[in-house]
Amino acid sequence: MKSIYVKLVLSFIITILLSVVITVVVTTFLSKQKLEMRLGQDMVKMGEDFIDLYGAEDSDKAARFLSNSSFIHFSFIIIDDQHEEKLLGQPGPPIPITPQEVDQVLDGKRYSNLNEEKGDRPQPNVVGLPFKENGRSYALFIQSHPQRQFSVIQDVQNIQLITILLVGIVLFAYVSTIIIKPIKRLSTAMKVVGQGEYNVQVEYATNDEIGLLTKNFNQMTKELNKIETMRQEFIASVSHEIQSPLTSIRGFSAALKDDIVSEDKKIQYLTIIEKESTRLSQLSSNLLKLASLDSEHQTLTLQQYRLDEQIRHVVMALEPQWTKKNIEIDLDLSNVQMEADKDLLEQVWLNLVTNAIKYTPENGLVKISIHQKNEEIDVKIKDNGIGIAEEDQKYIFESFYKVDKSRTLKGSGLGLAITKKIVRLHEGAIRVESKKEQGSIFTVTLPIQKNRTKKDSSV
Ligand SMILES: Nc1ncnc2c1ncn2[C@@H]1O[C@H](COP(=O)(O)OP(=O)(O)OP(=O)(O)O)[C@@H](O)[C@H]1O
Ligand SMILES: [Mg+2]
């Protein structure tokens, strides 16, 4: 994984190297030569201007010309045809020229040592210009002092620094944009999520920290989207579950208002109204239970009690239902002492045994057994009823999921969702093995002692 840290360091090094290379190219091959050329041209121009002014009548002007501060780093030497030297302007080191070179200038040729290879030792730059005054030949030599050459080197260095700075800024700004772009994209997406739109995915190509962050962000929005869909489905299911009993209550009450309904029918209609009202009240208490189990503040009231006795008690409470269907109940309950929230666990056995009876035809068999292994117990509730197809098994623990949607077997589809939540609050597990038309086995595994170091509400 290439981290942002590595990327930043690498891009910094590359930026510096590139700017140095570009700078070296620019200054070595362009600026240095140009600067020397410019210096030479300046010196020639200076000489020409000086020659124009030089003369008996303009000597004052020429003197003023040389007193200008631009010439403080230059020496002006005039040599006549008799090789008489006259120094004007600032004195400097002796001019490195041979008498032959003086003669050449006196003969009308210009002289310059600017393009010559000057060797290791820095030599002053010299230009020589011929001119005539009152019919006599003169040679004007202008020499730049080392300070002047130093200032040329300084100019080169300044250009180098400015180039490094400019190239560095441009390259680094570009690299930063590349690094910052995905962060900006992520930030925009977060804003959208903050406004309640969860169906957002951000593309990412890198494997660095931002790539990882984007991957996690996408995972988060996917989950949020799933929760939002579940919430909407939940509301739709609740409305549907409330709506259907209310419709039948409304219908039968309207019929009862007509006097034409016989006494027998009246009793039948009233019984239906009573049943549907009970269903509504059960639904609302189940919804409340589900909400309270979901709440973060759900805590368990733990107590030591006999599990086998609790199950026996639940079976006895459901006697009217299993005797009505002539279902045989086979109990294999060893003496087990456990610590749990007694009321909540009672709800678990009630839901599972009710289902076993509800989804087993008449004359069926329901077996309930407890198996202890080390610090855990398995409670198995086995029936030889209608069974659950494999494709339905993964959904039956979800709220409102019913295999038989036709409502022939009435229920709200909340029993197993509540059961699973209670089991998980006890740090246990529930699983189902089932074959259609052959029966089902629900196995609940629970710790005998709840681990007190963990938070009770952790699910
Ligand atoms: N022992 C079982 N045999 C066959 N199917 C079962 C069994 N237990 C549960 N199911 C299937 O799983 C679905 C969900 O069960 P759950 O207990 O959550 O809801 P319900 O029994 O329909 O309604 P509720 O328990 O809320 O009154 C049931 O509708 C049923 O289709
Ligand atoms: Mg049920």
UniProtKB/TrEMBL annotation:
Keywords: ATP-binding, Cell membrane, Kinase, Membrane, Nucleotide-binding, Phosphoprotein, Transferase, Transmembrane, Transmembrane helix, Two-component regulatory system, Virulence. Residues 177-229 form the HAMP domain. It comes from the Bacteria. It is a multi-pass membrane protein. GO terms for molecular function: ATP binding; phosphorelay sensor kinase activity. It is an enzyme of class 2 (transferase). It catalyses: ATP + protein L-histidine = ADP + protein N-phospho-L-histidine. The chain crosses the membrane at residues 6-30, 158-180. Its EC number is 2.7.13.3. It is found in: Cell membrane. Signal peptide: none annotated. SMART domains: HAMP, HATPase_c, HisKA. PROSITE patterns: HAMP, HIS_KIN. InterPro entries: HAMP_dom, HATPase_C_sf, HATPase_dom, His_kinase_dom, HisK_dim/P_dom, HisK_dim/P_sf, HssS/ArlS-like, Sig_transdc_His_kin-like_C. Member of the two-component regulatory system HssS/HssR involved in intracellular heme homeostasis and tempering of staphylococcal virulence. HssS functions as a heme sensor histidine kinase which is autophosphorylated at a histidine residue and transfers its phosphate group to an aspartate residue of HssR. HssR/HssS activates the expression of hrtAB, an efflux pump, in response to extracellular heme, hemin, hemoglobin or blood. This is Heme sensor protein HssS.
